[in-house]
Amino acid sequence: MHGFEAALLIPIISILMPIFIVGIVMYFRAKDRAEVQKTIRMAIEKGQPLPPEYLDSLQKSGATIGKMKTPVNDIRSGLILMAVALGLVVMDYVGNDYTFETLSGIAAIPGFIGVALLIMGIVGLNNQKKS
């Protein structure tokens, strides 16, 4: 009974950990954007002019607006998701006496999303080359 609980915790933790990490990254990005907007708002309220170089640097850093989605970003994201899926499959295979269990099925979700992003990135690159 005690071994069953430990075996159940491993896939749960491996699924929740990426969600937790992504949540932390999103929290700090939102916090940074809020700070930048607060600074700009205070400068405008006090009548301080914002230098064009500062606004350009904000746009280039992506602090005020979301970064542009490019086909290269799709390919990168797709490859990362496929690597995560492969890692989960290997962990499942090695951890279950070299047989595939439930975790391999769960790994198919990020794997197929990764394949879709990879295809979208390749199609996007081909469309950019044509235009």
From TrEMBL:
Its keywords, alphabetically, are: Membrane, Transmembrane, Transmembrane helix
- Which residue spans traverse the membrane? 6-28, 77-94, 106-125
Task: Write down the Pfam families for this protein, in alphabetical order.
Answer: DUF6249
Q: Which InterPro entries match?
A: DUF6249 (IPR046216)
DUF6249 domain: from which residue to which, for each copy?
10-122
Q: What is the protein's given name? A: DUF6249 domain-containing protein
What is the native source organism of this protein?
A: Asticcacaulis excentricus
The organism that produces this protein has a lineage beginning with:
Bacteria, Pseudomonadati, Pseudomonadota, Alphaproteobacteria, Caulobacterales
